[in-house]
Design goal:
By secondary structure, this protein is an alpha+beta fold. It has five helices and 18 strands. It has a single domain, classed as 2,3-Dihydroxybiphenyl 1,2-Dioxygenase, domain 1 (Roll), CATH 3.10.180.10. The longest helix has 14 residues.
Length: 283
C-alpha cells in the first residue's frame, strides 16, 4: 500500500533502552522471533530479513528502571505482512505463556504486550485501506474486542511461528507527551504530518500519505509530565525516513522556524519534540 516506503515519511527504526541487554535479547529472539544483525557489548540491532534493522536495544551506563508518569515511549508497533502471521503469533504467545492484550481498531487488528522492562509493544496487521472509513480529513478508529475466532481461521495448518517474517516493518510509534498544542505544531508545521484523528482532547494521531497513523501522541501520563532521566529504560530515539535530502532540509528549516531544537550529531540530524522525544531525521 506504500505507507512505509518513499515518498511517504514514515518511522523506519526505533531504539529503546533496556536494563539488562542479555535478558532483553532473549525475549526479542525467543518470544518475538527477531534475529541479530549487529551486536556490541551494550547494543544490539535486530532484524527480520537479515539486511535491515527496524529495532535496536541499548543498555546505558548506570541504567535505571523505567520511570512512571513521564514522557517517552507508550509503545512501538510492529506491522506484520499477513493476517496469518498475526494468527500464528497469537498461538505462539499462548504456547509461551506470554500475557497480551488485543483490540480491533477498524483500520487494523492488534496485540499488545510489554518487554521485560515494561517497554510497550504493539504487533498488528492492517486491514486493506479500501475499507478504512474517512470523514473529511479524519479516519475512523476505535477500540473494539478482537475477534480471535475469526482471526485464528487464518492459521495455516502445520505452519507454526518461525520468527518475524520477512516484510515486517516498524508500522508506527505512540508517544507520551507533556501537552498537545506545541506537539501538534512540531509534527505538523515542522515535519509535515497531517492530523488524521483526534481522540478527545488527550491524543492525536498523525500520518503522511493518508495512513491511519505513523505517530500517535497522548497526555495520558499527565499534562506537564517530565522528561525521563537519560539513563532510564524507555525510548532512546526513533528514526523518520524522509523522501530525500531536499525534504529533510525543508523539515529542518521549518523546525528551526518554530523554535525546535535541531542539531547535527555524528552525520545525523537530530530533533527533539517539545516533550524531549528524540527524533532522527534520515533519508
Amino acid at each position: 500500500m506504500g505507507f512505509h516506503t518513499k515518498p511517504t515519511t514514515f518511522v523506519g527504526h526505533v531504539k529503546i533502552k533496556v536494563e539488562n541487554l542479555q535478558r532483553s535479547l532473549t525475549f526479542y529472539q525467543d518470544v518475538l522471533g527477531f534475529d541479530v544483525l549487529e551486536q556490541t557489548a551494550s547494543t544490539v540491532k535486530l532484524t527480520s530479513d537479515g539486511k535491515t534493522s527496524i529495532l535496536s536495544l541499548e543498555q546505558p551506563d548506570n541504567v535505571i528502571p523505567k520511570q512512571g508518569r513521564t514522557t517517552g515511549l507508550y509503545h512501538f508497533a510492529i506491522l506484520l505482512p499477513e493476517r496469518s502471521d498475526l494468527a500464528n503469533i497469537v498461538v505462539h504467545l499462548v504456547e509461551k505463556g506470554i500475557k497480551f492484550g488485543s483490540s480491533d481498531h477498524l483500520v487494523s487488528e492488534a496485540l499488545y504486550l510489554n518487554d521485560p522492562d515494561g517497554n510497550g509493544i504493539e504487533i498488528y496487521i492492517d486491514r486493506d485501506s479500501s475499507v478504512w472509513s474517512w470523514k473529511g480529513e479524519e479516519v475512523a478508529m476505535t477500540v473494539d474486542p478482537l475477534d480471535f475466532k475469526n482471526l485464528l481461521t487464518t492459521v495455516i495448518s502445520g505452519k507454526s511461528w518461525k520468527g518475524m517474517p520477512e516484510g515486517t516493518v516498524m508500522g508506527h510509534i505512540h508517544l507520551h507527551v507533556s501537552e498537545l498544542k506545541k506537539t501538534e505544531e512540531f509534527y505538523v508545521k515542522g515535519l509535515g504530518f497531517d492530523v488524521v484523528n483526534r481522540y478527545g482532547v488527550q491524543a492525536l494521531f498523525l500520518s503522511t500519505g493518508k495512513y491511519h497513523h505513523h505517530i500517535g501522541v497522548n497526555t495520558w501520563n499527565g499534562i506537564g509530565a517530565p522528561t525521563p532521566a537519560k539513563n532510564s529504560v524507555g525510548l532512546e530515539s526513533f528514526t523518520l525516513i524522509l523522501p530525500n535530502e531536499e525534504a529533510r532540509n525543508q523539515a529542518i528549516s521549518k523546525l528551526k522556524k518554530i523554535g525546535a531544537n535541531v542539531m547535527e550529531e555524528n552525520n545525523n540530524f537530530i530533533a527533539y519534540d517539545p516533550s524531549g522525544n528524540r527524533v532522527v531525521l534520515a533519508v
